[in-house]
Request: fold
Amino acid sequence: MTLNSWQFLVLATSAVLVLPRLSGWPRVATALAVNLIFAWSYWGMAAMAVALGYIAAGYVCARVVRTRGGAALVLGLVALTTAFLYLRGYRLDGWTGPGAAPTLLAFTGISFLFFKMVHVVVDAASGSIDRVTLGSYLNYCLNFTTVLMGPIQRYQDFVAQENAPEAASLEDHVDAVNRVLRGLLKSFVLAPFIAPYVLAPGRPIESMGGGTLLLATYGFYVFLYLDFSGYCDTMIGIARLMGLRLPENFDLPFLSRNVSEYWLRVHRSLTLWLTDYIFTPVYLWALHSRGLRARVFLALAGSLMLTMFVAGVWHGTTPNFAVFGLVHGLALVAVRGYEQLMVRKLGRARFREITGMPGVRAAATALTYNFTSLAYTFFVLDLGESMRVFRRLAVALAGAS
Reply:
């Protein structure tokens, strides 16, 4: 059931027309029926049974940790993470050999589901979530507007909106419909139009000219943005018509002036999740540890590298995704180190003044765009092909000079 199919049109239209008129358990039950139909269309019965079992395990963990404390939280997270690694298809031979095929039990959207479940379990243990009810929890995990590719909404926000859907004016409805259409245009017209020209596995790298290869590398970044942001626009618009307001995922990432700003503009809901559940606890632990207490920048750098490593391997099961994350981690460390150095030399006010100059902003934006485009090579190609791309670009650059 693709987003441009008549089946999805019927399902989404039914949800938009019916759900805003319901409340209480009828709304929860109807939403669950819609979500299960959508999930079944993607997963099939076998994978759906596995997904529901995994979701049920998360529900049990969330209920148990509210009363059993820290040990239960650790055991629950270990169990959910171990199951995720197996279901997702992480295998040692995928890192030491040609790569293992994903397990037959894998299902689309498991990475997003895993992060949502971890959020529920951790927040239930901390008391940030007062109550986890089965119906709302199932709809949160299976919500057809977020289950495949996000955005990663927080459980508290979802439940609040499910219990009291936001009223939408005529203008809101028009904006939502326009957003759906804009998203479909991005995903099914613009992205497919440029797809044949972008970097992809199997392309004849050595026979491509340097300029053509560089444009293909730039093009993949644009393609990925159009495809993913188009999906998010479509789902955010549909959710708004149902009375739900999903978090934004994109904010003109091409205008980012550094890698730190880039990660606040692209896949924003993932960045916020990583900040809350990986970076912040690790950084606080490092600052209170005996070895890193007096080495604040080292603690920051280590926390950033670990966070981006997790971001990388979360996206895929092969080494190139780890490199993708680590490259961004190194860039974030460099940005933070540069900022601290310049603030010490110039003062915060002067540094802010310089970075706000139009010429400096333009140069920084261009540099960031080039870096992020090249870093996406590790996202789309394995390590061998990625290195062939960089060697070919280096040869072309040397020849041009």
Remarks:
- The radius of gyration is 23 Å.
- The chain has a mean pLDDT of 89.
- The CA atoms of residues 99 and 225 lie 27 Å apart.
- The chain is about 75% helix and 0% strand.
